[in-house]
C-alpha cells in the first residue's frame, strides 16, 4: 500500500504544466505598424505581472490605450490567480513611455479580457471579451477611468475579441468564434446589430480569424489585425487591409506578419505575441501597445498551491474587512449612545 502511495505521490510531484507568462510593451512609432517594427523597440517590457499590486497576477495582456486630457490610460487583462479568471486593470502614463499601475477597474463573475476601449460623442466605452457570459457586452464609463457599467448586449453568442470601428457613418464589428471570422454592422452603437451576408468571412482557420487588436481607420485605409494560433496559441500577429466594405460586400488583402515570438531564451516575448493597439498622437507619431509571452514549464502541484493560497488570501482579507466594518459600526453606535 505504501509503495502505491509513494508511486502516486511521485507521479503527482513530477506532473508539469506549461504556463504562458504574458507581459506588455509600449513604444512610439513614426508610422502605422504594417510591417515588423525595429527589434530594439521590443527589447524590454513596460508592464509585468509583478507590478500589479492589488491582486495576485499570473500575467498581464491585451493592452488598449486611450488618450484623455494629455494623459494616457492603458486598459488590459490581468489573470487573477485567486479566481483563475481575467479582470481588467489600468495603468497610466504622462509621456506614453513610463507606465505606472493604478488599480483593477472591472471585475465580473465571468472571465474578462481584451478591453477594447473607445470614445463616441464625448463618452467612454469598452467592449471586453466576455465569451464566458455568452454575450458581447457594451460597457460605458460612469466615472472615467474607474467605474464601468453594462449599457447594452450587442450580440448573443460565444464571440471572442470583438473589435469595433466606424466607417462611412456606420458601425462595424469583427469577432472570432470557433476558427471563424464574423462581421456585424449597425447604424446605432447600442442596438440593431446585423450579421453581414458574407459572414463568416473566413472559416476553419485559426491563423487569421481571431482579432488581435484595434481596427485602424486611417483616412480611407482600414487595417485589421489577426492572431495566428499556430503552432501554439498567441504565436503571432498578421495585418490585413480591408479594401472593400459595404452592407453587401467584403474584401481584404494580406499585408504582413508584423509581430511574432523572438525564439530567444529568457526573452519576454520568446514564444509569441498576440495583441496590438495603436493610437495616433500627432501627424507622424503613433503610440503602440503590444503583448508577448514566454512559456514556462512549472510543477503542477506548486502552481496549484500558489493559486489556492491566492484564493485563501482574498477570502481572509474579505473576512478581516468585514470584521473591521462591524467593529467600526459598533464603535459609532456606542459613541452615539454616550452622547
Question: Your description of this structure?
Answer:
The protein is of the alpha+beta class and 339 residues long. It has 2 helices and 20 strands. The protein has helices spanning 2-14, 300-338, and strands at residues 16-29, 57-68, 71-80, 85-93, 100-106, 113-120, 123-129, 135-143, 147-156, 160-167, 170-177, 180-186, 194-195, 210-211, 216-218, 221-228, 236-245, 250-260, 276-282, 285-299. Strands 14, 15, 16, 17 and 18 form a 5-stranded antiparallel sheet that branches. It is globular. The protein starts with a helix and ends with a helix. The model has no long low-confidence stretch (mean pLDDT 91).
Keywords:
single chain, alpha+beta, 4-stranded antiparallel sheet, 20 strands, globular
Amino acid at each position: 500500500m505504501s509503495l502505491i502511495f509513494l508511486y502516486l505521490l511521485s507521479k503527482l510531484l513530477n506532473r508539469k504544466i506549461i504556463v504562458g507568462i504574458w507581459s506588455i510593451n509600449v513604444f512610439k512609432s513614426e508610422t502605422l505598424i504594417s510591417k515588423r517594427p525595429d527589434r530594439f523597440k521590443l527589447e524590454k517590457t513596460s508592464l509585468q505581472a509583478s507590478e500589479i499590486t492589488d491582486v495576485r497576477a499570473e500575467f498581464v495582456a491585451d493592452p488598449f490605450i486611450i488618450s484623455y486630457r494629455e494623459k494616457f490610460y492603458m486598459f488590459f487583462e490581468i489573470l487573477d490567480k485567486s479566481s483563475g479568471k481575467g479582470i481588467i486593470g489600468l495603468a497610466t502614463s504622462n509621456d506614453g513611455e513610463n507606465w505606472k499601475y493604478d488599480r483593477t477597474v472591472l471585475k465580473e463573475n465571468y472571465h474578462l479580457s481584451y478591453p477594447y476601449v473607445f470614445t463616441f460623442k464625448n463618452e467612454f466605452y469598452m467592449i471586453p471579451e466576455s465569451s464566458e457570459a455568452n454575450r458581447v457586452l457594451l460597457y460605458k464609463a460612469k466615472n472615467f477611468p474607474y467605474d464601468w457599467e453594462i449599457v447594452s448586449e450587442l450580440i448573443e453568442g460565444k464571440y471572442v475579441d470583438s473589435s469595433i470601428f466606424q466607417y462611412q457613418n456606420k458601425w462595424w464589428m469583427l469577432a472570432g468564434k470557433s476558427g471563424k471570422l464574423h462581421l456585424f454592422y449597425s447604424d446605432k452603437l447600442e442596438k440593431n446589430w446585423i450579421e453581414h451576408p458574407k459572414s463568416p468571412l473566413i472559416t476553419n482557420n485559426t491563423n487569421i480569424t481571431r482579432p488581435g487588436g484595434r481596427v485602424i481607420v486611417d483616412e480611407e485605409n482600414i487595417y485589421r489585425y489577426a492572431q495566428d494560433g499556430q503552432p501554439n496559441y498567441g504565436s503571432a500577429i498578421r495585418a490585413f487591409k480591408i479594401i472593400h466594405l459595404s452592407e453587401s460586400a467584403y474584401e481584404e488583402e494580406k499585408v504582413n506578419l508584423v509581430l511574432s515570438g523572438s525564439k530567444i531564451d529568457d526573452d519576454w516575448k520568446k514564444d509569441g505575441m498576440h495583441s496590438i493597439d495603436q493610437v495616433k498622437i500627432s501627424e507622424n507619431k503613433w503610440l503602440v501597445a503590444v503583448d508577448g509571452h514566454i512559456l514556462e514549464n512549472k510543477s503542477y502541484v506548486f502552481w496549484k498551491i500558489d493559486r489556492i493560497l491566492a484564493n485563501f488570501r482574498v477570502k481572509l482579507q474579505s473576512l478581516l474587512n468585514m470584521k473591521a466594518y462591524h467593529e467600526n459600526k459598533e464603535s459609532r453606535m456606542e459613541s452615539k449612545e454616550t452622547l
